[in-house]
Design goal:
The chain is of the alpha/beta class. It is built from 15 helices and 14 strands. The longest helix has 24 residues. The relative contact order is 0.14. Bound molecules: nicotinamide-adenine-dinucleotide. The site of nicotinamide-adenine-dinucleotide has 28 residues, from α7, α9 and α10.
Length: about 375
Amino acid sequence: MTSRIDWVRANCRLLLAIAEEFAATQPFRDLTIGTGIHLEPKTVALLLTLKAGGARVVSTGNLNSTQPEAVEYLRAQDIDVVGDRTTDEREHDEYLREVLSRRPHLLLDNGGDLFARYLDDRYEQLLGGTEETTSGRVRLSKLRAQLGRPILVINDSPIKQFAENRHAVGQSVLESFLRITNRATNGRNVLVFGYGSVGRGIAASFRNAFASVAVVEPDPVLRLEASFDGFQVPDRAEGLRHADVVITATGAAGVITEADLDVLRDRVVLINAGHFPAEIAVDRIMADGRVSGRRDGPEGITTVELTDGRQIHLLTGGHMVNLGGPRPLGNSIESMDLGFALQARCLEAVARGRTSPEDVVVPVPAWINALVAEAFLKLYRG
Ligand SMILES: NC(=O)c1ccc[n+]([C@@H]2O[C@H](COP(=O)([O-])OP(=O)(O)OC[C@H]3O[C@@H](n4cnc5c(N)ncnc54)[C@H](O)[C@@H]3O)[C@@H](O)[C@H]2O)c1
């Protein structure tokens, strides 16, 4: 029987083609690559592609999203995986520091966790690397002067923006809502916080599933765009008062807090799609005097009871919904194949010295975007 990891690997056609090329060209010969990225089937395909290029790979996951089958599969392929699934920030910190203790030449980071910690204990042989997310770019761009090495930000590639953040996250957040709650979207009032690429895709996917979607976005230009796209743009209190489902996709902390408890509708479903679990301030909400109880119900759903009898349903504890709950699938294989092909090509460019030392926290170079786009069109649509 083939496993889901085998299915994913077999369908990551760009990565398979790159792995075949890397096996011949060996861009990472004698190099160690340290990674701190969600450990799930698609990252397995990426890490094995890097290994095919001659790298020693030492990996750990992100908070809460590590899938044990992925860890087992990687270990069986001689990839050094540090730690296991954890929601404990201290434990996670230890795992990240252990990856750095192997002194990797390249870092593949997700959220800036590795590069930020590298600054606590620097070493010369670090060539640079990649950062996957918006949240990581924001964090690391403040540290440019100290980092002083090429770091290419995958998220800032137009390919990542439309293929993964917009189209794929929109689909997978909808899929996660349906999978975890088994509730209908039809006619429900869905309120999306943030109208960046991720929020745009979520809003469109829920509208395509016959929900009535509104958007809260502080940037007036993006708010106007949401309005032109046909979404309601109420002020946040008004939006929250009517919302059956609230989804955060901002990259910011404390988007929904205990201050919103009075306006939330009975049985509202709260979902976070942003990278860090802090978008919904779960601890602050739980500590509020208006909370009378908490039931950790069927997988992925926590019901918070308020003293006035209202209930709030929180999905996946406020962690990124599309990588939590029962049988999380994450984003579509095609979108991740594209994003991870960008990762593999960017790491190759840093390893081969095809970047300049000034490329510290900069977008993927245009030539890499073009290379990956051409390859995808040829393989998938040719
Ligand atoms: N779930 C996933 O699979 C997945 C995939 C990619 C990115 N992400 C994460 O999703 C988040 C958003 O990514 P993006 O690329 O759309 O970012 P972005 O920066 O392009 O957009 C975020 C938007 O949120 C708005 N915003 C900020 N604070 C807000 C608030 N308090 N209320 C309402 N809106 C607010 C900003 O003005 C901005 O327009 C990030 O944390 C990113 O890491 C998740």
